[in-house]
Amino acid sequence: MRIFIVVSLLLFTQLLLAATEGELGKDLVNPGYHEQPAWFKESFLDLGEDVAEAAAQNRRVLLYFYQDGCPYCAKLLEDNFGDARIAKKTRKHFDVIAINLWGDREVTDLGGQATTEKKFSESLRVQYTPTLLFLNEQGKAVVRLNGYYEPAKFDVVLDYVSGKQETAMKLSAYYAQRQQMARAGKLHDEPFFLPQPLRLADNRKQSWRPLLVLFEQRGCQPCDELHQDAFKRQHLVTALSAFDIAQVDMDSTAKLQTPDGRILPARQWAVELGLQYAPSMVYFDAEGKEIFRSEAWLKAFHLHTVLDYVATGAYLQQKNFQRFVQHRAEILREKGFNVDLME
Fold first, then answer.
1. In the prediction, which pLDDT does 342 show?
2. Which residues pair with 284 in a beta bridge?
3. For position 183, what pLDDT does the model report?
4. Element holding 87 (H helix, E strand)
5. How far is residue 294 from each of residues 50, 237, 275, 343, measured CA to CA in Å?
6. Structural contact between residues 204 and 284, judged by C-beta atoms closer than 8 angstroms
7. Residue 65 backbone dihedrals phi, psi, to 5 degrees
8. Among 218, 292, 287, 205, which Cα is nearest to 250's?
């Protein structure tokens, strides 16, 4: 425990300094390469033209934001697009255009303005890779996936967007409709959760720690993994001690007090926040204002990095989470730690 605290303090200082540095070194920008499917569109990155061309062929545009060396991008390419059925469905209904988070290729955005891949990504506040934007015929994003979705859920998203279901219902409602069976069982409990019923505005008045609200569902395999793996790791439990942590059942009609003082059913609050993945983690500051969120599948290293990003206040200095991830990994390696991004 004492060693962890010393390392955390060292990281805190160096990460905040790194947060204000200039461009990353070349070795950090391109630490690895993952071959993309040959059927991805070879685009000139004039996105207005891409949207029009796709619409003319009764398809939609899917923007895929990636970075070399991203293990979650590798999973998307290998596990999702490596599934013949998912690949066939994607090719039929979408023109997939890859955009490098750190790239310098010229992009003509949907407003007709010339920019670069890197600046375009920044303008959309892309914080996770992969980030996927599904565009309609007018170039408006109808679904945004901030991070990796496992194949079964990704397949549902493809059906939702290709079927233009966004005019009828939210993605979360569509996904619930598509479930093969009703959710059964109970949510996992943890000793560090705030007591129920939740009074989160009251908590914000009484506590100086950031608030982490963990949105979960029953019968959720990624939720099981979070509790049975990540929350069993001592270094993560130690990092969690910097937060007040509330668990919310995304499907529940039970009422709670939100950080801004309203009394709402948990399900309604999750819908208002636009949550479409379980588990999702939403972070609030002392005033009850949302400051960051993660809403996709994360392994322990990236979960710990998010916790550090919020707890140290680095998010105030470094607005680009991916730069923080890369600096943190580099610092740990320099100190002799083995860094496994998928551990």
1. 75
2. 211, 290
3. 63
4. helix 84-93
5. 29, 18, 10, 17
6. yes
7. -90, 125
8. 218
- Which residues on neighbouring strands pair with residue 132, listed in sequence order? 64, 145
Q: How many residues in the chain?
A: 343
Tokens in use for 118? 């890197």
The H-assigned helical ranges of 130-228 are 151-162, 171-178, 200-206, 221-228
Q: What's residue 65's pLDDT?
A: 98
For residues 186 and 220, the answer to whether their CB atoms sit within 8 Å is: no
Burial class (CB in 10 A: 0-12, 13-18, 19+), 314: buried
CA proximity to 71, closest of 290, 340, 276: 340
Structure tokens at 177: 């409709």
- Hey, how many other C-beta atoms are within 10 angstroms of the C-beta on 23? 10
Residues 48 and 274: their CA atoms lie apart, in Å, by 26
CA distance 193 to 198: 10
Predicted TM-score of the model (pTM): 0.86
Cα end-to-end distance, the chain, whole Å: 20
